[in-house]
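C-alpha cells incoming
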C-alpha cells in the first residue's frame, strides 16, 4: 500500500498546493491519499502501516518541482507540527519501522491568507501530478494469484 499525503492550507494561497494535487490524483487500488494542514506525530500510526509514503508540499525559494528521498530526522519545531523527516523519526521510535519515504516539493509564490493559487502554482500542477503518477507506477502493485496458477 502507498500513501500520498498532501500538506497545506487551502486558505493560504499556494500553501494549498499539497491538498490540491492529492485531490487531483486518479483513484488506484492499493493507494490511500489524505490532505492535512500540517504533519503531526499522531500520523505515525498511519504511516507505519504502508510500504511507501509520499509527502506533497509547497516550497519557497525553488523554481522546479523536486522529488527527493526523506529519511528520519530530528524534530526541530517548537509547536505540534513537524517536517516529514521528524514524522518518520516519530514513526521509527513508536513502531520500530518506517516506510520508504519521499517528498515532492512544488514551487509556490504567494502564501497570503484568503487567496487562491498563484498562476505559477497553477502552472506547476500538471507536472506535479505527472511526477506522482510516475512514482506510483515505479512500484508495481502485488498481483493476485489464482488457485489455478499456484498448481
Amino acid at each position: 500500500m502507498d500513501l500520498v499525503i498532501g500538506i497545506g492550507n487551502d486558505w493560504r494561497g499556494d500553501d494549498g498546493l499539497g491538498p490540491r494535487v492529492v485531490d487531483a490524483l486518479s483513484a488506484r487500488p492499493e493507494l490511500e491519499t489524505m490532505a492535512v494542514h500540517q504533519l503531526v506525530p499522531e500520523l505515525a500510526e498511519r504511516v507505519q502501516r504502508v510500504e511507501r509514503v509520499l509527502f506533497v508540499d509547497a516550497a519557497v525559494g525553488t523554481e522546479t518541482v523536486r522529488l527527493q528521498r526523506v529519511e528520519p530526522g530530528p524534530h526541530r519545531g517548537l509547536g505540534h507540527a513537524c517536517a516529514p523527516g521528524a514524522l518518520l523519526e516519530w514513526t521509527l521510535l513508536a513502531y520500530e519501522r518506517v516506510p520508504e519515504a519521499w517528498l515532492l516539493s512544488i514551487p509556490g509564490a504567494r502564501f497570503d491568507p484568503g487567496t487562491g493559487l498563484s498562476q505559477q502554482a497553477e502552472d506547476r500542477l500538471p507536472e506535479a501530478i505527472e511526477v506522482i503518477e510516475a512514482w506510483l507506477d515505479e512500484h508495481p502493485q502485488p498481483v493476485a494469484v489464482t488457485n489455478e496458477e499456484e498448481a
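note: Residues 2-150 form a domain with the Rossmann fold fold (CATH 3.40.50.1450).
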